[in-house]
Amino acid sequence: MKPILAISILVATASSLLATEQDDPLTKEKSASLPPTVGKEKFTFQQIEQQKDQLKDKIVLVEITLVGKGGDIGNGMLRYFAEDTSGSAMPYGRVDFPRDALNKLGLLDNPKKGPISVYARVHVFPEKKAAAICVAVGTHVAIENGKATYSW
């Protein structure tokens, strides 16, 4: 049996996390706090686990397909297992999505639709030394003057 890396992706809607309206200071703060992506390279769950110390709090691109039915974990969130598209020895992770984001992405009624490429911030749990992707910030990125803007 292949080991499963505990991965959590919280997909935030573009309007609530990534809007960049000039007159909204709260929105500017959220947009400004997002670092640029590590690169255009797609990472696997196995690579994230192996490089978790270097990738901590950075944004990486992952390509995944949801596996099975999502379990309701409360607060409008659904938890899925996901498989990255690498075919590597450790392609599985746990993925948490808001129900609204899944609906927007067309995955709520058809979770096996995919694969989907998602930019996500890597979070490392210090007590377990385990990696987790905790916030997916979009499916597209534009970088201008060293600042990243993510969108769906």
What would your notes on this structure say?
This protein is of the alpha+beta class and 152 residues long. It has a single domain, classed as OB fold (Dihydrolipoamide Acetyltransferase, E2P), CATH 2.40.50.140. It contains five helices and nine strands; from the N terminus they run E-H-H-E-H-H-E-E-E-H-E-E-E-E. The strands form two sheets. Strands 1, 2, 3, 4, 5, 6 and 7 form a seven-stranded mixed beta sheet that branches. Strands 8-9 form a two-stranded antiparallel ribbon. It starts with 9 loop residues before the first strand and ends with a strand. The N terminus is likely disordered.
- CATH superfamily assignment? Nucleic acid-binding proteins
Alpha-beta classification: alpha+beta
Q: Please, what is the oligomeric state? A: single chain
Overall pLDDT score: 73
Radius of gyration computed on alpha carbons: 15 Å
Helix content: 10-25%
Termini gap: 35 Å
| Reported CATH architecture | Beta Barrel
CATH class category: Mainly Beta
Overall geometric form = globular
Structural domain count: 1
CATH topology: OB fold (Dihydrolipoamide Acetyltransferase, E2P)
Count the E strands. Answer: 9
